[in-house]
Amino acid sequence: MSKKKKQLKKTNEERILDENGLVYSELQFNWLAGKEEALKATAAEGISEESILKTIVCLGSDGPKDYLVICLPIVSEIDLKMVARELGKKQIHLADNKKLIKITGYIHGANTPIGIHAAKDFPIYFDQRIKDQSEICVSAGKVGRSVRMQLSDLVQLVEGRFIQVAAQ
Question: Any idea where the YbaK/aminoacyl-tRNA synthetase-associated domain is (predicted)?
């Protein structure tokens, strides 16, 4: 008697993608084992590190609820002063990691533009360096779970904009 392959329970973010008729694939990578190990696993799947996005939650200078989200390659850094200039703000700070679950509904490492846009409607910005990527990976709302999808579909879904987030 053969065993059935255990199907993963869909995350809320995957259900949002389904509701919008968007095509994606589910992925699992063990980021808790360390970034290098996870990047080796993604490379083995044929996924470039530049197409794996991290989601950074920031607080702008326009008040205590001026949150915004920046998505950039996991191997890249963010220049907060440059982001502030791009958005016409005095300053941009990283949101307090200890308060992320209260701010976004996600723990550190699980933040995703899909769920944040649906639940909080914070403005979502993408690093302009990824414009040439056809497909990208973003968190599926749980640590270690990702979705791979068309960049254009994600940007449209979350009403995102491309900005410069670091020097080229």
Answer: 40-156
Angle at 149 between CA 41 and CA 125, to 5 degrees: 100
* Contacting residues for 7 by C-beta, under 8 A, at least 6 apart: none
Q: How far apart are CA 146 and CA 143, in angstroms?
A: 8
Residue 1 lies in a domain: no
Helices of type H across the chain? 12-19, 35-44, 80-87, 100-104, 113-120, 151-157
Q: How far apart are CA 52 and CA 88, in angstroms?
A: 27
How many domains is the chain built from? 1
Q: State the first-to-last Cα distance of the chain, in angstroms, to the nearest integer.
A: 56
Report the CATH number at residue 158.
3.90.960.10
What tens digit of pLDDT does each residue of 54-113 get? 999 999 988 888 999 999 998 899 999 999 999 999 999 999 989 999 999 999 889 999
For residue 93, which of 139, 129, 60, 133 has the smallest C-alpha distance?
Answer: 60
Pairing of strands 145-150, 24-28: antiparallel
Query: Would you say residue 3 lies in a domain?
Result: no
Domain range for 138: 16-163
